[in-house]
Design brief:
Number of strands: 14
Number of helices: 8
Strand order of the largest sheet: 4-1-9-10-11-12-13-14
Helix content: 25-40%
Order of helices and strands: EEEHEEHEEEHEHEHEHEEEHH
Strand content: 15-25%
Structural class: alpha/beta
Shape: globular
Length: 374
């Protein structure tokens, strides 16, 4: 891994060599009792969902939300052992977070309670049928004060088969960024595969700040997952530079020149990221499905037809499906198929994680309309 992000007021102290074997198809650590399939960490907040404009008042539904815990719940429902680490306040909101994760089968032995800071708050405001405004109240929260020591303790119990990171946690604070960097180092030392979901949040940091951090992590990443507009954040200079496009799957060949150009740009950027050491690149394309790029080529899967009720959390559900199939030994086709399936379940229900399917429910999308499962 080259050029880890600089610590505040100091010099770059990250790992400076690529991880041996960090390429597509690198073997997973074997499963064994006590070893998590996936370890992830970050801030989980109490989520309040209104029925309309907040300024008009009304009732709100209370739940929890956080990209990493959304993924953890999705994987746990699919039968995987997931360990989540994070900090919550010594308050009722923090107890709700821990209680919910525990009830969903997520291991929370790595969680801590911070008596000096509150649990973060997230407000969802449906403003139009397909437009939701999100309001964060997380400055100075317990979750933003996550430290490398918390990650060290969580890793020390047993190295996970997969480390899952998002671009949200390093944006929260210098200590959270250091915690993410420490997790990458521990994954390298212990042979854990690394999955990075870019998950860029413009309200938390600028594109320039994100690029400085994320591009340094790419050589250590085995699976990079991003939307097409997030790929440039992982490349020096915002995605510029020359590169030959990877061959596109036949499904992506569009008659429209603009669509052709956009697809070629994504393929070129994916090729550049593969050249920088990433094992494989998975590009989320929303209603158009997703494409996986590996050194041997690319593969596309269309999205599953589904009437969208709430698109929030769909990306996390997609990643949960992809990692689930990866842990099951599936190839790119099987991983994409499960990912678009779990993503479809997510958009069919309100909430960040509530619609995540169990393993036995995965086949329900193929049922004809009006089917009653008895």
């Amino acid at each position: 891994m080259t050029g880890q992000p600089r610590a505040a007021g100091g010099e770059d102290r990250g790992v400076t060599t690529p991880r041996p074997g960090a390429a597509a198809g690198r073997p997973l650590l074997p499963g064994r009792p006590g070893r998590p399939d996936v370890f992830t960490f970050g801030e989980t907040m109490v989520a309040l969902r209104g029925s309309g404009p907040l300024k008009l008042g009304g009732t709100m539904n209370v739940s929890i939300a956080g990209a990493e815990s959304n993924l953890a719940i999705g994987l746990a429902r699919l039968g995987h052992h997931v360990r989540w680490a994070g900090a919550v306040g010594d308050d009722e909101a923090g107890q709700l977070v821990l209680r919910t994760l525990r009830a969903e089968g997520v291991e929370i032995s790595g969680a801590t309670t911070d008596p000096g800071a509150p649990t973060g708050l997230l407000l969802f405001e449906p403003r139009l049928p397909e437009v939701t405004r999100v309001h964060y109240y997380r400055a100075g929260s317990a979750g933003s004060r996550l430290t490398p020591e918390v990650i060290q303790r969580a890793f020390s119990a047993a190295a996970p088969r997969v480390l899952h990171l998002t671009g949200i946690t390093p944006s929260l604070s210098p200590t959270a960024r250091s915690a993410s960097r420490r997790a990458l180092q521990l994954a390298r030392e212990n042979g854990s595969l690394v999955c990075l979901d870019v998950n860029f949040r413009a309200r938390l940091w600028t594109a320039e700040e994100a690029t400085e951090v994320l591009r340094a992590w790419i050589p250590a990443v085995d699976v990079l997952i991003a939307s097409d507009d997030e790929l440039p954040l992982c490349l020096p200079g915002g995605g510029g530079g020359e590169g030959s496009p990877l061959p596109l799957p036949a499904q992506e060949v569009a008659a429209d020149d603009a669509a052709d150009e956009a697809a070629a740009t994504v393929a070129r950027q994916a090729g550049l990221l593969l050249d920088r050491g990433a094992g494989e690149i998975v590009v989320k394309l929303g209603a158009a499905g997703a494409t996986a790029f590996t050194p041997s080529g690319s593969l596309h899967r269309p999205a599953k037809p589904m009437r969208a009720v709430d698109t929030v959390g769909a990306g996390d559900a997609f990643v949960a499906g992809y990692l689930s199939a990866l842990l099951d030994g599936e190839g790119p086709a099987g991983r994409l198929e499960r990912a678009v399936t779990t993503g479809a379940f997510a958009v069919a229900s309100p909430g960040d994680w509530e619609g995540a399917p169990t393993r036995s429910e995965l086949g329900m999308l193929g049922a004809p309309p009006g089917t009653v499962v008895r």
